[in-house]
Amino acid sequence: MGSLAGHVIPGLAFFVLGFWHLFNHIKLHSLHPNSFTSYSWFPTSKSRHLELFFIMVASSISVSMELFISPARHQPFDPDGTIPSYHLHNFEHSFISMTFFTYAAFAVLLDKINSKAKYSLTLFLGAVAFAQELLLFHFHSADHTGVEGQYHLLLQSDIFVSLATTLLGIWLPKCFMVSFIRSLSILYQGVWLIVMGYMLWTPELVPKGCFLHFEDGHKVVRCSSHEALHRAKSLVNIQFSWALIAVSIFSMSLYLVLVKLYGETVEYSTLTKEEESDDVESQKESTHPWTAQKCYAVMDIES
Predict the structure, then answer these.
(1) Of the candidates 16, 3, 36, 5, which has an alpha carbon nearest to the alpha carbon of residue 178?
(2) CA-closest candidate to residue 87, choices 139, 133, 142
């Protein structure tokens, strides 16, 4: 992963997956605003498990690149069978991909056996994948103090949002905002990985006072002075802010377009007094702390 392609290609995968979820959740909410229920993954007309197969293929390619294709000897071990220090990050990245592969594989199996708990278990596996990603980036063997470390630090904040909203989705399957934010955070992971790839491994884009230096089998950005490093980190923060604003504008624009396209087809009916009374009671119940578990149980039964 310590290269331009090693960040841009996974970034594109996260972006496509995040956009796919964002598009479908907004569309689903536009069509059914009053009965919206989130999906852990979305089937397609041509292949029900296309999204999950995409994750499995992308994860397999990532593992192959990290452990077998990128290393000079096409395997990550020293002659004595130990892991050299310059290949530790390859194992860390590959374990992230393996966890996402596990998520997708079991999501397919749970769907095939039509388990009543498939929604909650699938999201649980998704949360495990994000937790693994967050853990390995937080304790990454790469430099934590340099420019790359600043990119990784900001990436962790986005991964945490993905993790938190995935866990919340287990108890709040009918909450549109949980699904919206989760989808957007996955998309933003892709955007930030792409930004990292270009900004860290394109010589013309390296901050002033910094340079690319070959260390431990891959190139890293080093700065000639503390002042140059501080400036470079500040520029990373600015890039993160720009990207966040751009993604927010994009998501709101997409929402408005899809609501315009699909929201007009929604039919509304007038509630009777009896129905209004039931609706008020349900809203009162929704404030109860155990309502989330009730939603979870309903989701599993409906699935």
Answers:
(1) 36
(2) 142
Which H or E run contains 210?
A: strand 210-215
The residue type of 277 is S
Cα–Cα distance, 276 to 294 (Å, whole number): 21
Query: What kind and span of H or E run contains 204?
Result: none
How far, in Å, CA of 156 to CA of 105, rounded? 25
Q: How far apart are the first and last CA of the chain?
A: 37
Of 29, 50, 30, the closest CA to residue 41 belongs to 50
- The dihedral built from the CA positions of residue 76, 80, 83 and 86, taken in this order, carries a sign that is negative
Angle at 61 between CA 93 and CA 63, to 5 degrees: 30
pLDDT in tens, the chain (303 residues): 667 888 999 999 999 999 999 999 999 999 999 999 999 999 999 899 999 999 999 999 999 888 887 766 667 777 777 777 777 888 888 999 999 999 999 999 999 999 899 999 999 999 999 999 999 998 876 666 789 999 999 999 999 999 999 999 999 999 999 999 999 999 999 999 999 999 999 999 999 999 998 876 678 899 999 999 999 999 999 999 999 999 999 999 999 999 999 985 544 444 444 444 444 444 443 444 434 444 433 444 444
Q: How many CA atoms lie within 13 A of 21 on its CB side?
A: 26
Length of the chain: 303
Helix H or strand E encompassing 211: strand 210-215
**d(Cα 273, Cα 244) in Å, to the nearest integer?**
45
Look at residue 215 and give its three-state secondary structure. Answer: strand
Q: How far is Cα 104 from Cα 125, in angstroms, rounded to an integer?
A: 9
**Helix or strand (DSSP H, E) at 129:** helix 118-138
